[in-house]
Amino acid sequence: MTRTQVARARAATPAGPDSPRVAAVLERLVTAIATGQYLPGSRLPPERDLAAALGAGRTTVRAALEHLARRGLIETRRGRTGGSFVLQQWPESSTAIVGRTLSASYAQLRDLCEAVARLHGAVCRAAAERRSPADLARIRDALDAYAGADSGLASQQADSALHLAIVDAAHNDTLRRVLADLEGRLSIGAPAHLWGAPEGMRAMEVRALREHRELVGAIAGRREDDAERIARAHAAIDLELLTAALARTGSPPATAR
């Protein structure tokens, strides 16, 4: 076998569980699931999308997914409607990983959450200025869908639809792209906000509904200042959930040591 053939064979062989590359991807995915970026029943993005979001090779991502399946966090289904589906959110075996991951990246996540909140404010200000009657009708329909959604995955999906309707009402493609990029860094490409741990989930959803109603009211009334203020406060939920998850592990942020 030539050197080229050997190199190709090594590249095609999934990295083992002790591979630093696989371990890094695995820890990020475990943390993403634990913090509610991907709730039980949801499908993870395709391997190619995860690889792009994580800056890793598809072979590395595939190996990490295999380890997730062995941990019982996901299952892989074949066929046209298949993929990797989340089975459970935060077993005890995830706690050390979540603590290590969030502790090391907390300062960066805090800054990212602040940037997302500020940009959400700008988007909602623009929506209040520019929304059309059709935009407002879509936003109100999405708000009604959120209010009637079951707790958990259905509520998270309805939340995503509502925020997408608001972003569309801003009529600014640059704001849309920048916000999508920032949120993708926070949630590994997921089109959904963090949803937190199961024990506090329903209380968070009720709070979010109240804030959603206030925000939609400001957009409907073209109250730009209020729309920006409410949106920035609402987006702060993400950092609160990350902070709560870190506290649950008993690990302090690395910057506090």
Question: What does this entry look like structurally?
Answer:
By secondary structure, the protein is mainly alpha-helical. The protein is 70% helix and 3% strand. It contains eleven helices and two strands. The chain has helices at residues 3-12, 20-34, 47-54, 58-70, 95-130, 133-148, 153-170, 173-187, 198-220, 224-235, 237-249, and strands at 74-77, 83-86. A two-stranded antiparallel ribbon has the order 1-2. α5 packs antiparallel against α11. The longest helix is centred in the middle third of the chain and has 36 residues, at 95-130. The chain is globular and about 55 Å long. The termini are far apart. Mean pLDDT is 91; it is low at 1-14.
What's a quick, concise take on this entry?
With 257 residues, this protein is mainly alpha-helical.
Quick check: average pLDDT? 91
- How many H/I helices? 11
Whole-Å distance between the termini?
51 Å
Secondary-structure element sequence?
Answer: HHHHEEHHHHHHH
From the alpha carbons, calculate the radius of gyration and give it in angstroms.
Answer: 20 Å
Strand line-up in the sheet with most strands:
1-2
Percent helix range: 55-70%
Q: Which spans have pLDDT < 50 for at least 5 consecutive residues? A: 1-14
Q: Which band does the percent of strand residues land in?
A: under 5%
Largest sheet: 2 strands, antiparallel
Total count of strands:
2
Overall structural class, as computed from helix and strand content, comes to mainly alpha
Structural shape: globular
List its salient traits.
257 residues, mainly alpha, two-stranded antiparallel ribbon, 11 helices, 2 strands, 70% helix, 3% strand, disordered N terminus
